[in-house]
From TrEMBL:
Classification via InterPro entries: Ald_Oxase/xanthine_DH-like (IPR016208), AldOxase/xan_DH_MoCoBD2 (IPR046867), AldOxase/xan_DH_Mopterin-bd_sf (IPR037165)
Keywords assigned by UniProt, alphabetized: Molybdenum
Protein name, entry field: (Mediterranean fruit fly) hypothetical protein
GO molecular function, one term: oxidoreductase activity
Pfam families: MoCoBD_2
Annotated organism of origin: Ceratitis capitata
Domain Aldehyde oxidase/xanthine dehydrogenase second molybdopterin binding: 3-89
SUPFAM superfamilies: Molybdenum cofactor-binding domain
Length: 174
């Protein structure tokens, strides 16, 4: 079997709450190269599932190990958070690239299950953009915020530039 390339493009629009770190994926647009799709609805489902699965990797699934024993501490649903129904983008649009047959694939098709995993990183770029906007609104200088996997609500709050002293009900200066 010959090797072949699979192409994909994702655009992710997210909203973050800089006080809680919670985020919501407002919209995702994906264009996926499926070659000549044998079953477009199955391929679209594969793209959706792959993307959402990796949203967990990038946004929620934090693995914490005990430094002494190496034991996994986040091994149950109370503290290990795979993506749920509320993590799926509100507006999720998948389109398959047309007229792009794959001469090396079965019946000119291409894989659609694993390749879209790479596209979920767009969620991190969307959070980076939202954090830059929040930091600008707070009057902070523009600087790159280091984000990784997972970018949890805690990570978002800590990098938002929010000054906790601004959240008092009583200002002692007056």
């Amino acid at each position: 079997m010959e090797n072949y390339s699979v192409y994909g493009l994702a655009l992710t629009e997210m909203e973050i709450d800089i006080l809680t770190g919670n985020n919501q994926i407002k919209r995702v647009d994906i264009l996926e190269d499926a070659g000549e799709s044998l079953s477009p609805y199955i391929d679209i489902g594969q793209v959706e599932g792959s993307f959402v699965m990796l949203l967990g990797y990038w946004l929620t699934e934090q693995l914490i190990y005990d430094r002494q024993t190496g034991e996994l501490l986040t091994n149950r649903t109370w503290n290990y958070k795979p993506p749920g129904a509320r993590d799926i983008p509100i507006d999720f649009r998948i389109e398959l690239l047309q007229k792009n047959p794959n001469p090396a694939g079965f019946m000119r098709s291409k894989a659609t299950g694993e390749p879209p995993c790479c596209l979920a990183v767009s969620s991190i770029f969307a959070i980076q953009h939202a954090l830059q906007s929040a930091r600008k609104d707070a009057g902070l200088k523009r600087e790159w915020v280091r984000l990784g996997a997972p970018t949890t609500p805690e990570t978002i709050v800590l990098n938002s530039g929010t000054d906790i002293s601004k959240f008092s009900l009583y200002n002692s200066a007056h």
